[in-house]
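Write out this protein's structure.
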Amino acid sequence: MCGIAGLWQTRGMSEGELGRSAVRMADSLAHRGPDDAGQWVDARAGVALGFRRLAIVDLSPNGRQPMRSVSGRYTIVFNGEVYNHSALRAELEAAGAAFRGHCDAEVIVAAFERWGVEASVRRFVGMFAIAAWDAGRRELTLVRDRLGIKPLFVHAEPGCVSFGSELRAVRTGPRFEDAVDPTSVAAYLRYLYVPAPATIHPRVRKLLPGHLLTVRDPERPLPPARPFWALDEVALAGAAAPLELSDAEAVARFEALLTDAVRLRMEADVPLGALLSGGVDSATVVAVMQAASRAPVRTFTIGFDQREHDESRPARAIARHLGTDHTELRVGGREALGVVAALPDIADEPLADPSLIPTYLVCRLARRHVTVALTGDGGDELFAGYTRYLVGPRLIEWADRWPRPVRRLASACTRSLGPETWTRLHATVAPLLPAAWRTRLAGTKLRKLGRVLAGDGMEERYRALVSAWTDPGALVDGGPEPDTRADALFRLGAGRLDLMERMMLADQGGYLPDDLLAKVDRASMAVSLEARVPLLDHRLVELSWRLPRRFKVRQGTGKWILRQVLARHLPPALVAREKVGFTVPLAAWLRGPLREWAGDLLEPSRLGGIDGLRPGPVRREWDRLRRGNGDQALGVWAVLLLVAWRERWGPSAPRAEPRAVVEVA
């Protein structure tokens, strides 16, 4: 795993200036690659590439980057892993290629020479962000993996294109302007992240997952990126031609592919482990890892001081049953306060997913013992693990049958009490309710029901399920929300996918790469830990869309096929558990250990540091939250991190080099 950066400019920078720019940009990513650094300059072309290395496979100098192909035509910097590099190496060797070492970067440049860039990346199995300079054609090609596991930011002005693994890299490059895009602020306040391809800055874009961007003239506007793998095509083709398999056949096929995906991701020349949350996804990954390992797998878990958010006990039981070498750390509000100050550095674009805190803490814990960790991310989006996939379609379609005035009245009733009050009331009557009505965090879910009832149309109601602020336009002047990739995917599935599948497709194209994978990437890279996600092997994604619904949902429970695999390794009690999720007691923390920090940031003078943000609505929700009657803990949290981010990275912030966030000890 590494950090990459570079630029191509036509305004006469000297070789020394180009080199210094590339080094400065790459050094801002030192936390992504503390083991080595490199740079390459072609002064005549105006191109410079920078690199920071976290050595994982082939720790020798043979793995150093930037790396040139044998002929000198291609020079690349590369972040990630191509897991099938050994098979590709054998094929290339049979065709006459020679290799010095055994790293995957060498395979990439050899593949580019043999097959070209686009044909090669179609053959790669892995997570990757690649920048390739083609000296023969004088073009720069940027590539991002199919699911968006690895990030890539691109900044463009006439005469200069720069790129980097994180925003901080392009910020330290030439000619960067730190203006904030109000439309991105509005989208961020709704979703807790800025949806790709936009970023918080108007002149910077995220390269979309599964896309290539080829730049031939930095003087001209960036051309459109083109897909080499299209999620919508995979989903629609899979749904149109589902596999006709028995239960046993489907489980066997899925387990074989999952086992291959996990084994490929266990290759490393450094210590390796896994993050174990206690849920089905990570437990399944760890079970397959342990079955493939001769020694106990190292596993790591974070526990919370509030029981309804804590999965440490089942994680401990799973680890004990599987025989892993398990390490656990319990955290509370005080530990959270210690991390909060670092959040704008960990995620240098606003990212308000509260689980970034425990994700960072468990990554920091793991990094004390290993350099690579496998995770269970992706299982919910692929195999219908979220409650909203199971309940949301019924609610959305049910709401269609209510007259609008009745819906609005019912919605208002759900807002009459705070979510914690509703949860306490639910706990009181739960013993009298049918089993299907007994649920965790009932108040939060009831308030979401109110939002669904208030919406008009399926798309608006689904958006309400995944929104922090349902009307961010009321908070931001001049900030109409952009149409997102997730919106387009949701609409694209109309008439061809059922409502649950449309929701899953939208999440796979938006929430998954822009929130969950960004969170894991920043949290793990902040402590120089490589996180690998076997459930998001693109072959598994393609298989998931060809599996009929019954292999995902049965008897009102999602992830059926994952549970079948897990049941081969664990007793039923550890498989058939209600989903908890990697959540935190945010409202309690904001009223408790984080109250002073939050109150200071929400002073009107500091809220005024965000151009166009209206302090009034934010202050009102903060006052309600402090009194225990607000349901906008997530929305308030988003504003808090936006203000903290702007104070760290805005025009008034110190212009010192961005600091690395590595904290291992």
